Amino acid sequence: MAQGIQAGDTAPDFTLPSQTGEQVRLHERLGERVVVLYFYPKDDTPGCTAQACAFRDSHEVFAEAGAEVIGISSDSAERHSGFAERHGLPFLLLSDQGGKVRKSYGVPSVLGLLPGRVTYVIDRKGVVRHVFNSMTAVDKHIEEALEVVRGLQDEQG
């Protein structure tokens, strides 16, 4: 199996529609801020809802540390819109229908069926600085990403 994107790799660029229908290009979001990009299996499932709400609850902390959180799954933009509204999500959810971006990052499937849950921290230059892959340790995605983001903030001086 092809190895996925690792720390030190350049993050593959992409453009995907958000829950508002806006086309979002990754490399246009970088430069001024770090991007915490998290791939998750599906809107409105218990683990994904818990993870989205945990990112929501830490949103200000990420913003203060100079990071933008972006979630990606293969749900439609319309479905993302309802999910974001129901849970008051203040960040972008991108629709990767067909899973092309997920494949470009090498996000693994669980049991060959369920799309995996992987978080990437991408610095201002577009380099992946941290990868965390776990279907179950939802809170660790947020904790580890925040730790890396704070470290990058210190580097900026």
From TrEMBL:
UniProt keyword Kinase, yes or no: no
Signal peptide per UniProt: none
Key words, A-Z: Antioxidant, Disulfide bond, Oxidoreductase, Peroxidase, Redox-active center, Thylakoid, Transit peptide
MF GO annotations: thioredoxin peroxidase activity
Active site: C48 (cysteine sulfenic acid (-soh) intermediate)
Start and end residues of each stretch annotated as Disordered: 1-20
One GO term describing the cellular component: cytoplasm
Any GO BP: cell redox homeostasis
Catalysed conversion reaction: a hydroperoxide + [thioredoxin]-dithiol = an alcohol + [thioredoxin]-disulfide + H2O
Coarse class of the protein's main subcellular location: other
Protein family membership: Belongs to the peroxiredoxin family. BCP/PrxQ subfamily.
Job description of the protein: Thiol-specific peroxidase that catalyzes the reduction of hydrogen peroxide and organic hydroperoxides to water and alcohols, respectively. Plays a role in cell protection against oxidative stress by detoxifying peroxides and as sensor of hydrogen peroxide-mediated signaling events.
Quaternary data: Monomer.
Name recorded for this polypeptide: thioredoxin-dependent peroxiredoxin
